[in-house]
Design brief:
With 173 residues, this protein is α+β, with helices and mostly antiparallel strands. It has one domain: Porin, CATH 2.40.160. It is built from 3 helices and 8 strands, in the order αβαββαβββββ. It is elongated and about 55 Å long. This is Outer membrane protein beta-barrel domain-containing protein.
Length: 173
């Protein structure tokens, strides 16, 4: 499964490179901070998440962009779960993932946008796994490049699904 997801991620990256060479307009970079509230089964174990990401947006139409992003997200283990782990001799405050996604972003009038991305989330933990990640969202880009958006980020692995509601604030340049 990891090899398939990695192959899909690489193919998406190569697609972005192909579009970059065929367009006469330049793309936009976007860096930002992400905060999340785990939901469902993910919310049973983790209280919150925080991270950072970088995104490249390449124009493929007047208001439509092909996107590629990567980042780091840290999920903080809930206090009662942390206490149970300590009782087992495991001292851990959280877990990390590296989400790598590709997708489409479409701007409507006045800076509003909708975006959908999909890719892989790689665990940074020893013995960790890789899951499929998808993230539909909406947001607004202000004049000057400041951007704010909300999304649902879902994770799917071996038939189980979980997710989080996330807020991203960034700067587009």
């Amino acid at each position: 499964m990891k090899k398939v997801l990695l192959l899909l991620t690489v193919l998406c990256g190569l697609s972005i490179g192909a579009f970059a060479q065929s367009s006469t307009e330049g793309g936009k970079w976007n860096i930002g901070l992400d905060a999340g509230l785990p939901l469902g089964s993910l919310g049973d174990l983790y209280s919150s998440s925080i991270g950072a990401s970088v995104k490249y947006e390449h124009p493929i139409g007047t208001s439509t962009f092909l996107t590629g992003s990567a980042g780091y997200q840290r999920f903080f283990i809930k206090g009662d779960v942390k206490d149970a782990l300590k009782a087992l001799g495991i001292d851990k405050s959280g877990v990390g993932i590296i989400p790598v996604k590709a997708g489409l972003k479409h701007y409507f009038n006045d800076g509003f946008f909708a975006e959908a991305q999909a890719g892989a989330a790689f665990s940074t933990e020893s013995g960790g796994s890789t899951s499929f990640v998808y993230a539909p969202g909406i947001g607004y880009t202000f004049k000057g490049g400041f951007e704010a958006g909300v999304r649902y980020e879902g994770f799917s692995e071996d038939g189980s699904n979980s997710g989080m509601a996330a807020l991203r604030v960034g700067f587009r340049f």
